[in-house]
Design brief:
The chain is mostly beta strands. Helices cover 8% and strands 33% of the residues. The chain has one domain. A hairpin with an 8-residue loop joins β5 and β6.
Length: 78
């Protein structure tokens, strides 16, 4: 997956300058996430934060394969 230098939006990320990567919407769909934002989803390689980029705004959606949580998708409910 292509990586970028956008900073991680998670306030608890130990390394917010870690590379960010695009996450395939099919990967999220296999985890049960079927939302329009998945087309613009990115993931922090350090903390596993998954967020969407819409109109230059970053919205944290959850975590995928976070080192603290068990493997898989962990949504954030706001």
């Amino acid at each position: 997956m292509p990586k970028s230098t956008t900073a991680c939006p998670a306030k608890t990320c130990a390394k917010p300058d870690a590379p960010q990567e695009a996450i395939a919407s099919g990967l999220l769909a296999s985890a049960g996430v079927n939302a329009a934002w998945t087309a613009q989803a990115r993931r922090c390689t350090q903390c596993g934060c998954v967020y969407s980029v819409e109109d230059e705004a970053l919205t944290v959606r959850g975590y995928y394969n976070n080192p603290i949580f068990p493997e898989g998708w962990r949504p954030i409910y706001v």
